[in-house]
User: Fold these one by one.
Assistant:
Number 1:
Amino acid sequence: MGYDYALVHLQYTIPPAVALTLCYYPLSTSLGVYKILFLIAIAVISTTPWDSYLIHSQIWTYPPNAIIGPTLFRIPAEEVFFFIIQTYNTSLLYLLLSKPTFHPVYLRGQKLFNDGRRLGLRRWTGVSVIVACILAGIGMIMKSGEGLYMGLILVWAGPFVLLLWSLAYQFIIGLPLSSTFIPVVLPTLYLWIVDTLALKRGTWVIESGTKLGWHLWDGLEIEEAVFFLVTNVLIVFGLIAFDNAFAILQTFPSLFPTIPTLPSPILLVRALLLPTTSYEDERIEGLQEALGRLRAKSRSFYLASGVFQGRLRVDLVLLYSFCRVADDLVDEAGSIEEAKHWIAKLNEYLDITYGKSYVKVERKQDLISTFPPSAQASLRLLPTSHLSPTPLYDLLKGFETDLHFSSSNPFPIKDEPTLQVYGAQVAGTVAELCLELVFHHTKGSTPESLRRRIVQAGGRMGIALQYVNIARDISVDASNGRVYLPTTWLKEEGVTPEDIIKDPARSKAEILRQRLLNSAFEIYDEAKGAIEQLPAEARGPMRVAVESYVEIGRVLRQPGYKVKAGRATVPKLRRLRVAWNALSHT
Ligand SMILES: CC(C)=CCC/C(C)=C/CC/C(C)=C/CC/C(C)=C/[C@@H]1[C@@H](COP(=O)(O)OP(=O)(O)O)[C@]1(C)CC/C=C(\C)CC/C=C(\C)CCC=C(C)C
């Protein structure tokens, strides 16, 4: 009996497991835990007979003075623990690195598949390489002798890799390298180093006669290097296949009307086996467009979107896209008439959608086709069946207020109550819509009276965010001839809206920016408690959404902070820290 192998764990595998667990904990979800347990179960079940055979055939051995003693089918307990901890560590690294990835946009239906012809070529190249490895492995086993251990690795791992590649090649090829290459390479390099040390110390021994005798570097047998590489490939491909299946379930409500929080293996396989001809390419393209819009236009909500899950995440991205498109149509219109035209069209769109128009719902598509091409998908995909019409109509009323910045009434925000109404219309409504999606997509029921209180607080929070938005954009708005600071406040400081337009950097503007931020933070303090009443799975993500936007206000409140390039921004690391703290909050 000895502790050498146990020490390998204490020194090399447990410390990264602890570090990764601490990093992942705030981001953890029940689905994440389910994936890890699922993978560990498969790793133990699939590796045990193979490993047991290798030990039985004396291809590798453990000196009795290196292990504690208990075994499972001849496999030392420390080795069984190795399967578990390696799977755990590599899975956690993958889950951490792929957290921001929005998987639905990597699906490829028939049309998108044909557009990217290289996908088919790469699929079959992959199949050929894997099959060649399996055949080479069979050859080595048949010849026995020095190629035996390598042959056994290839023949054992090859079919699993082939299966996973065949099911999930779209994702394996398409996902960013941070979700494919890095979670394979980092743990593999690390385990190569650990293995070199263990082999040198004699913790485990690869017997001669059944190994090729090639070394990747001094002390690292080629078989060991290949073994750790393929096991990490298997773990990462397994997780990718899981994410591929879940993305199919998450993206197509028409094919899978309801999905459980933890989908069964049978449902996952059913999703993966669905022919790509059944995928709705239009929906995938619409989601790609919506995500691109979110990424380009809002760093705060883009970051926050990464911590929402499943269909709630999909619908929030689509809602953002609709709000952004509608706001831009009005803001970027060449004239007041054009802006009014778009607001009227958007109202007509809502009338048809919610059956308030004499125009039949079948004509909705015709109406949508009269919008600019870049706006059409966001109108088509807005999840209106989960959203009530009132906040959407109110949002459009808020956009109408922006049209009042005309020559007859150049500064419509007369006083703070008017600003509050404006904030409620353009942002309180958005909060209500987000909360409707939260209640729809989370399990457990929130009593109606509590829902009402949460929505009311959400509406207030929307106003707080809108104040932060106005405080941030004083210069940008002034350059467009707009002043959202209440005229009564300006008067108290002895300035006019025209003065702000002429010189938005003047000291009085800074005083009023701080006053507006004080109001924003008062409202924020009063409303934030309601987030804790939300269904558990939405609390952390909603905190991230709110906090990452409110942080812009905190930056603006720093003594001596000067707004550069027209807009205050939160540095990336600070944004990540805010998100982390928001998720760690208990
Ligand atoms: C995570 C995720 C993807 C969330 C999506 C949130 C969403 C749907 C945002 C829509 C934003 C938008 C374009 C609205 C149009 C009207 C508008 C311009 C509103 C202002 C947003 C500023 O966005 P941005 O900085 O990109 O805009 P400009 O470049 O200046 O044009 C607003 C400040 C409103 C944002 C308000 C919310 C998202 C509501 C937040 C409150 C909650 C979610 C409720 C919190 C819950 C409780 C219980 C307190």
Note: The longest strand covers residues 215-217.
Number 2:
Amino acid sequence: MVPPAEVIKRQANEAFKAGDYQTATALYSHSMSLDVDNPLHVLNRSMSNLKLTNWKEAEIDATLALTLSKKNEPNLQKALFRRSRARKAQGDLAGARADLKGYVAHGGSQKVADTEALTDPLAVDVKPSPIPTPSTADQAGYKIKDTVFMGKGAFATRNFHRGDRILAEKPMISLPEPSDFKEGYQAILSAVERLSPKDLLRFLSLHNGYSAKGGNIFIEIYRTNVLPDGLCDDASRFNHSCLPNARYSFHGDSGRYRIFAFTDIAIGQEIRVSYLSSRNVYGSTRDERRVRILAKLNFTCLCDACSLEGVTLKASDDRRREMLVLWERMVKHDPRFHGQRVINDAVQAIRLLREEGYAADADDFATDAAALCDAL
Ligand SMILES: C[S@@+](CC[C@H](N)C(=O)[O-])C[C@H]1O[C@@H](n2cnc3c(N)ncnc32)[C@H](O)[C@@H]1O
């Protein structure tokens, strides 16, 4: 298995070769953080910072590379050479000259040093990085930004009506649910290794909910953000709520994840989906949901329903307990004997869903009641 830091550095080098220095610099920052004692990451980042004319950052990177390189002569030469260019560009001519001297002392070419001393760093070929294309989010009517307690989340930038489609996004990684973990593990690593440098950077910027436990960063990020059949850039940013105002589903024909509004959603409101299947949400008490979410997803739910206390929490738990009983009774009803009772149960369940502020699944109860009555 190639260590994640190596995979990331390799893709950073690809971005660098393609002239995408922004992506390269950001990827080197990630690879450095995973392999802190290896000077190559920061040495390479000093070069991409030079390309971006980030002189101060390039100087700092080269200085760190010098410290980490110890007695590695080729690295020392490169670091001193790069730092001399960064220093010269900042007007520190004495510092730049001293670095070039050091470069020669560590085996660098005197002729190259003499030429460098005369070169104007601003005249060095600096290719502009490609202009970023607007993300799906900018066009769709939602914005990914910081929440108070849940990291980032998606917020409406226009009013949505119930039933509106909020997002349709092709997954960055599409993988069927693995049948066994070992096989899944390898498939995830291979899929991450195949990502383009830009997608790898997007992947690495996703939330990691498992980092405190160590392990492989690719697997951790994948586990935190995976939807039933893959992982998306934007869809994976929508937070969970036990009172969701939207839902996601995979649309096989277009190969896209789609998110639809369950309720009207006003500008500025956070759009939240449910990570659990419906009955596990509307049919469970706060404590049951917390246990399930912690075990399956490794976080403690802080949604509005889970943040209730005292009598309002008890009322919510009671409603959800009753909804589960109604649901279980409905599926067990024999329509030949219990036609009216089925309808009463469906009406009561829908009333409880409304009281709870749970916008989904009323149609499930209604459809089941209709199907049972039809069988009478
Ligand atoms: C798929 S990510 C969602 C986007 C994430 N908030 C981010 O910053 O990118 C899942 C993570 O978001 C946070 N999260 C989502 N819903 C939450 C909730 N209801 N309560 C607390 N944290 C939540 C948890 O840290 C979880 O591991």
Note: The CA atoms of residues 47 and 82 lie 7 Å apart.
Number 3:
Amino acid sequence: MASPARVDLDGNPIKPITICMIGAGGFIGSHLCEKLMAETPHKVLAVDVYNDKIKHLLEPASLPWADRIQFYRINIKHDSRLEGLIKMADLTINLAAICTPADYNTRPLDTIYSNFIDALPVVKYCSENNKRLIHFSTCEVYGKTIGSFLPKEHPLRNDPNFYVLKEDASPCIFGPIEKQRWSYACAKQLIERLIYAEGAENGLEFTIVRPFNWIGPRMDFIPGIDGPSEGVPRVLACFSNNLLRCEPLKLVDGGQSQRTFVYIKDAIEAVLLMIENPARANGQIFNVGNPNNEVTVRQLAEMMTEIYSKVSGEPPLEVPSIDVSSKEFYGEGYDDSDKRIPDMTIINKQLGWNPKTSLWDLLDSTLTYQHRTYAEAIKQAIAKPVASS
Ligand SMILES: NC(=O)c1ccc[n+]([C@@H]2O[C@H](COP(=O)([O-])OP(=O)(O)OC[C@H]3O[C@@H](n4cnc5c(N)ncnc54)[C@H](O)[C@@H]3O)[C@@H](O)[C@H]2O)c1
Ligand SMILES: O=C(O)[C@H]1O[C@H](OP(=O)(O)OP(=O)(O)OC[C@H]2O[C@@H](n3ccc(=O)[nH]c3=O)[C@H](O)[C@@H]2O)[C@H](O)[C@@H](O)[C@@H]1O
């Protein structure tokens, strides 16, 4: 019996489309490709410089979706094939970016080029060829909260108007230029403004996504195993690396910053709704996060330590964490977002989307994956005698 036709949120049948996905080989791209292959009839032209995280979707040729995904090893900085691929597709999704905070103050030029200059041709080709664009921005465009400028004990700090981040109302508050941490957020903000202007002046059909700390399997790399030994990934991978190596977790400036974490699989549901409901998603900027999963970084460290001990069967570390200054950890020019709570009104109203997974459950499944994937390799790396020079 044929499976029932898939319908959008308004009950209309969903037509198969071709998607040019730039940055398809990254963390979010790999989960999005998986979802599109397993649950939809859409085709993906997967563009990236790497494909390790989607290899399982590309080979062997006998995979049921083999004719619906093609990988193009392309650096969008300099490759004339990009426009042709955008023309071949109905929709372009741009995920390509440098997006690890350790790079923002140490490689500010690369960060600005990657998040602004390199995205320009993508926007231009979409606009000129009347193709729809879903562009990945960031919750970092909000910068610091208004409340962070009030004295520590001020009662208004508890008023949501002073910290909840709303797409159509909150200001974008960055630190001074010498705090190069904000090079990323500022570049993302300018590309958002450019896309918005292309929509207003030239009719570009666009959707802007502001992810709030999406986490899960395949995020970033474990230093010395599948990434550089001296590399500094985002917090999930930093803490996973510490736990796998039985080292104390490093709390930057006391771990007082707050974050809301959302499970990658919940967030991907939101992206699929955007893909398949253009009439509801076009012209919108969407926060995608989980306001119920807020913790300080210190609390995150404690939770991950407890869960990893359960998952690995090893006793918790005697010294579970140590404090490090941001200057020591990230170098000169680091600064931080104090608190990030997404307002969910717009995505709720337009797409009816709500995150489901609690922080405990998402850390449990993610740390189970980390342990299964890396524990043995770490053991071997630690046991290996250091090569003589
Ligand atoms: N993960 C999150 O929670 C999060 C939060 C906020 C914003 N974002 C945004 O979402 C997007 C994807 O993030 P991610 O977490 O998957 O990061 P990621 O680093 O895992 O993925 C980005 C991918 O883009 C590719 N890429 C970068 N420059 C390229 C180029 N010049 N040509 C071709 N490919 C290139 C990289 O190789 C990588 O595979 C980024 O734009 C990021 O700023 C992510
Ligand atoms: O994921 C997001 O939504 C966005 O936020 C991230 O920024 P941030 O949350 O600051 O990045 P993390 O590296 O995950 O750091 C989170 C917090 O943990 C702290 N941290 C990080 C690593 C560590 O070992 N110890 C530690 O205390 C950082 O100082 C920061 O306060 C990145 O900028 C982007 O990937 C993205 O745009």
Note: Residues 97-377 form a domain with the Rossmann fold fold (CATH 3.40.50.720).
